[in-house]
């Protein structure tokens, strides 16, 4: 996907450019290309960027560690403010308080908008934090080690031996 020169958007029909997407995004591991579109509309002092896209990713279940495939869909919209001071390096302190109003995306009005970077960020945010292969996934099966001489269970990991000894001292 080519970068969009922001001032050129003002001459586009309806001040809008729509980019069709059917490619693998660098840095995003997917099984299929990302398919969909990104729409950028110029509104004077801000850009309205929206996208509908989907792909298939491979996830690892947080409970049983098995891999499974998942469809990753995106239907989002974002406002990006156009600001002359965007992307300027200031001598800012390493630590400073940031107010909620400053947590906005900004671009210079005479700069470029990169749809592939924006789509990569949105798809990365859509990847689920909690990855489960099934709602009722039992997790990793735990098998206990039993000695053939019918002795009580021995710990699977000897780092737990002290806890096992304490457990035997408890009345029960």
Outline the structure in words:
This protein is of the alpha+beta class and 172 residues long. It has one domain (4-126). The protein is built from three helices and seven strands; from the N terminus they run βαββββββαα. The chain has helices at residues 6-9, 115-126, 161-169, and strands spanning 4-5, 16-23, 34-42, 46-60, 67-82, 106-107, 112-113. The strands form two sheets. Strands 2-3-4-5-6 form a five-stranded mixed β-sheet. The longest helix has 12 residues, at 115-126. The protein is elongated, with a radius of gyration of 26 Å.
Oligomeric state of the chains present here: single chain
In this structure, how is the largest beta sheet organized? Answer: 5 strands, mixed
Counting DSSP E segments of at least 2 residues, the number of strands comes to 7
Give unreliable regions as ranges. 146-150
Tally of contiguous helical segments: 3
Summarize the structure.
By secondary structure, the chain is an alpha+beta fold. It has helices at residues 6-9, 115-126, 161-169; strands spanning 4-5, 16-23, 34-42, 46-60, 67-82, 106-107, 112-113.
Helix and strand topology:
Elements: E1 4-5, H1 6-9, E2 16-23, E3 34-42, E4 46-60, E5 67-82, E6 106-107, E7 112-113, H2 115-126, H3 161-169
Parallel strand pairs: 5-6
Antiparallel strand pairs: 1-7, 2-3, 3-4, 4-5
Please give a handful of descriptors for the protein shown.
172 residues, five-stranded mixed β-sheet, two-stranded antiparallel sheet, 3 helices, elongated
